[in-house]
Amino acid sequence: MSNDETTPGPRASRRPDKPRKRRRGLKITLGVVLVLLLATGGTLYWLYSQLDGNIKGVDINKALGEDRPEKLPTSGQNLLVLGSDSRAGAENKELGGGGAVSGARSDTAMVVHIPEGRSKAVAVSIPRDTLVTRPECVKDDGSTVAGKERVMFNSVYAQVGPACVVKTVEKMSGVRVDHYLEINFAGFKDLVDAIGGVTVDVPQDIDDKSSGLHLTAGPQKLDGTQSLAYVRTRHGIGDGSDLGRIGLQQQFLMALLSEVKSQDLLGSPTNSYKIAKSATKALTTDSGLASLTSLAEFARSMNGVDPASMETIMLPVAYDKIDPNRVIAAEPQAGQLWKAIREDATIPEDAKKSPATGG
Fold first, then answer.
1. DSSP characters over 30-81
2. Selected residue with higher pLDDT from 37 and 308
3. Longest dimension (CA), the chain
4. Closest CA to 51 of 291, 271, 289
5. CA 131, CA 23: separation in Å to the nearest integer?
6. For labelling alongside 213, which of 45, 67, 81, 235 has CA 20 to 30 A away?
7. Environment class of residue 81 by beta-carbon count within 10 Å: exposed (0-12), middle (13-18) or buried (19+)?
8. Who contacts 348 (Cβ-Cβ below 8 Å, separation ≥6)?
9. Paired strand residues for 314
10. Using CA atoms, how far apart are residues 188 and 12, in angstroms rounded to an integer?
11. Residue of 75, 105, 287 lying closest to 170 (CA atoms)
12. b/e for 200-223, b at 16 or more Cβ within 10 A?
């Protein structure tokens, strides 16, 4: 946190009645915790311009054009949430054992589906090692990148950029992505530190020499650096593949949301500002959400979503027969899962079972 932060004085603490009322109406929504934190920060009207300027936007609609799945009347809202492991900047290079790695990849990816009525949500994690067909995409500089088969899902971000990740997800799922949210390594660390750490129930002893994470089984309160290592560890749990850590990522998301919900953020403008500042500096969204006003409106529209109703699912995958270190979408399970999300229907139990578990 920078040293230029100041405690709001008496005049700055006076807020118009309308924003205060709006703030009281906000609730923590599963899968979009960053949106809600930012919306809380947005009620601090005197800091609006500074926080609003931190958010980076990507014009997904312009990049993808009309070649997209149809938006069905009953399809609810779908968000693609990425955690990017960009090594740009000295701070990011020091995190998660990333000093020797260049470029950026989508280290964590979840499609968060919020059905019509917005009373529940489901998050589908896409393993980063999944082999996918990358469609033809247009880069930021206007150049075209040809489509390619059997590429690792997390490499699409590095090779072409976030808009191509959205297009890849839409092509593989048939699900129309309404919004895009991305947070980088350093921002994730600062966000956890800003809320004072997150307590998780570690399922087994973890001794990951690669990331430097050493934890004993049981409840542990993790700071930002430990939390980052926890959601990234793959050598310390399961079979050492990406699949083993997806359960940790989903578990951590729930713990993070519980921690945020338990804190009196609305009653503490200073805490709200710290969290909002950490989040906005790390956040990239689609252009439709790239302002505090848009984020607040989006969050208010989902007041009815109950965090306790969140369901977390890993995309059903099977080990690739050519390269056992990679996985492919398992059929018919994956197709059934995406169909249920497209149609806002109940997800069949069989569609939640993955032949490859990472155990």
1. TT-HHHHHHHHHHT-GGGHHHHHHH-EEE-HHHHHTT-S----TT--EEEEE
2. 308
3. 66
4. 291
5. 43
6. 81
7. buried
8. 336, 340
9. 125
10. 29
11. 75
12. bebeeebebeebebebeeeebebe
User: pLDDT tens digits for 115-142?
Assistant: 877 677 899 999 989 999 999 998 888 8
CA-based torsion, 187, 181, 62, 164: positive or negative = positive
Angle value at C-alpha 93, between 230 and 145, nearest 5 degrees: 95
Contact 29, 299 (CB under 8 A): yes
Write the pLDDT tens digit of every residue in 18-68. 444 444 433 333 334 555 444 443 344 445 677 778 888 889 888 888 889
Look up tokens 């779908």; give the residue. Answer: 78
Report pLDDT for 303: 63
Residue 274 is encoded by which pair of tokens?
């710290």
CA-CA distance, 199 to 237, in Å (whole number)?
19
State pTM to two decimals. Answer: 0.77
Between CA 4 and CA 317 the distance in angstroms is: 48
